[in-house]
Amino acid sequence: MTSELTRDQAGPTGVSVRLGAVVKEFETETGELIRALDGLSLDVAAGEFIAIVGPSGCGKSTLLNILAGLDRASTGLVEIGGAPARGPHPEAGVVFQSDYLLPWRSVLDNVLLPIEIKGLDRKAHVPAAEQLLADVGLAGFGAKKPSELSGGMRQRAGICRAIIQKPGLLLMDEPFGALDALTREQMIIDLQALWLRLGNTVIFITHGIDEAVFLADRVIVLSPRPGRIDLDLKVDMARPRQWAEAHADPEFQRCIGEVRRCFERRGVLHRAQG
C-alpha cells in the first residue's frame, strides 16, 4: 500500500464514541445470568485508534457487537457521534475475523455490496473501490471470485468492503487472528496506512499485544469476565510506525511491559519459574 498522507495531513474524519457504565448480561438455557461486561466506561475521540486486548471470554467481541448495533447493552450509555446508539449506525463499518465475502460475487462486487444495499450510485463508486483494492495489493483481482484468493487476500477485500463508504467508525474484531505471521505483519502495516489516509475512528479487538501497541493511540486492557477496564494506556510513538523499528523503541517496550504486567497481576500470564 502506498500513501504519503499522515493523520495530521488528512485530518480526523471519525466520530466520537462514549460508553458509560455499560453492563451486558446473558441468560443461559437454565436461566442463569452471566455478566459479560460490568460497568464499562470509555471515551474515544474522533479520529482516535483504540486497541482492546484481554483474555478469551472477557467481553471484547460482546462490546464490539454492541457498538456495531448487533446487540444491546443491558444497562448503561452507548453514544456514537454524540447521539444514543439504538441499532446499526450509518457511520460504522465492521470487519470480523472471518471475511464473510459472498462466494458467488466477484471481489469488486463484494466491495461494492454496501453501496448497493444503501441504494447509492454503484457506478460512481467503482473507481474508489478499484483504488482501494490497489491500495491493499489487490489490483487486477476485482474480477476474481473469493475462492480464487488466499485468506489474507480475502481479508484485505473485506476491509475494502468495510471502508468503501469512508465510515467515521471502523470496528475490527480480531481481523488478523487467522493469518500467518508474514501476512499479519503486512496487513498491520496496510491498516495503519489506510487509517492515516482516512483519519477515521478505529476500535480494534485483538489478542496480540504487539499489534495492539503498534497500531493504537491507546491500548485498553479488559479484565477476565466480567469485562472491566484494567488499564487505559497511551502509546506515545510517532507515526507512521515501522514494524521492525518499533520493536526496538523504548516506548514500545514500555507499553508491552505494562500490558503484560497487567495480565500477570490477573493471572492471565505467568512468569517463568527458574
Descriptive notes:
By secondary structure, the chain is an alpha/beta fold. Helix content is 35%, strand content 22%. The protein has a 6-stranded mixed beta sheet with strand order 6-7-8-3-9-10, with helices on both faces. Strands 2-1-4-5 form a 4-stranded antiparallel beta sheet, covered by helices on one side. Strand 9 and strand 10 (229-234) form a beta hairpin. Helix 8 crosses helix 10. The longest helix has 18 residues, at 181-198. It is globular and about 55 Å long.
Spans of at least 5 consecutive residues whose pLDDT stays below 50 are 1-11
- Write out the CATH superfamily name of the largest domain: P-loop containing nucleotide triphosphate hydrolases
Overall shape = globular
CATH class (first level) name of the largest domain: Alpha Beta
Q: In the CATH hierarchy, what is the architecture of the largest domain at level 2?
A: 3-Layer(aba) Sandwich
Structural class: alpha/beta
SS elements, strand count: 10
- CATH fold-level label of the largest domain: Rossmann fold
Order of helices and strands: HEEEHEEEHHHHEHEHEEHH
Tally of alpha and pi helices: 10
Strand percent estimate: 15-25%
Give the count of structural domains. Answer: 2
Largest sheet, strands/sense/barrel: 6 strands, mixed
Family: Belongs to the ABC transporter superfamily.
GO molecular function: ATP binding; ATP hydrolysis activity
Pfam families: ABC_tran (PF00005)
Protein name: ATP-binding cassette domain-containing protein
